[in-house]
Design a protein that fits this description.
- The protein is α/β, with parallel strands linked by helices.
- It has a single domain, classed as 5'-nuclease (Rossmann fold, 3-Layer(aba) Sandwich).
- The protein has a 5-stranded parallel beta sheet with strand order 3-2-1-4-5.
- The two termini are 19 Å apart.
C-alpha cells in the first residue's frame, strides 16, 4: 500500500520534470493494479495550489478524474489524526509533511514522494513513482 504525496500529483498537473513517471504510476492506480491512498489534506492542498496558479479548469478535471481511479482511496483525516501529526513535527517536518508521515505510518504504507524530508522519519519508507513502476514490470 502506498500513500501518494502532494508533489506526485503536482508533477503531472503543473507539467514538471518527473511528469511521465508519475503518469505511469497513475495509470496503474487508475486500473487498480496498484493500491494507494491519499488524504483529504492533499486534495485540499492541490485545490489551493491550482487556484493560485489560476488553473481552475485543470483542477475540476483532476477532481473528476481522480475519483474514478480504481486503486485510489481518499482518506479523510480527523482532528485526532491532525493532533497526532503535530507530535511528528519533532522530526523537523512542517505540518503537511508530518500529517503525511503520520497517516502513512498509521495505515502501514510507504510514502510516494520526491520530498527527501521524509527520509529522516524513522520507520517510514519513501519511494518514487519510478520505483513502483519498475518493480511492477519485474525489472
Amino acid at each position: 500500500m502506498y500513500l501518494i504525496d502532494t508533489n506526485i500529483f503536482l508533477e503531472v498537473l503543473l507539467g514538471r520534470k518527473n511528469k511521465e513517471e508519475c503518469i505511469s504510476l497513475f495509470r496503474m492506480i487508475e486500473r487498480g493494479e496498484v493500491k494507494a491512498f491519499t488524504t483529504s489534506f492533499v486534495i485540499h492542498s492541490i485545490e489551493v495550489i491550482m487556484d493560485n496558479f489560476k488553473k481552475v479548469n485543470e483542477l475540476k478535471i483532476f477532481l473528476e478524474v481522480v475519483t474514478e481511479f480504481k486503486g485510489l482511496e481518499i482518506y479523510s483525516t480527523d482532528i485526532e489524526d491532525e493532533i497526532s501529526a503535530i507530535d511528528m513535527m519533532k522530526e523537523g517536518l512542517d505540518f503537511d509533511d508530518a500529517l503525511q508521515s503520520y497517516m502513512a505510518t498509521k495505515l502501514g504504507a510507504k510514502i510516494v514522494s520526491f520530498d527527501k524530508h521524509f527520509d529522516k522519519v524513522k520507520g517510514l519508507d519513501r519511494v518514487t513513482p519510478k520505483d513502483i513502476v519498475k518493480n511492477s514490470n519485474g525489472l
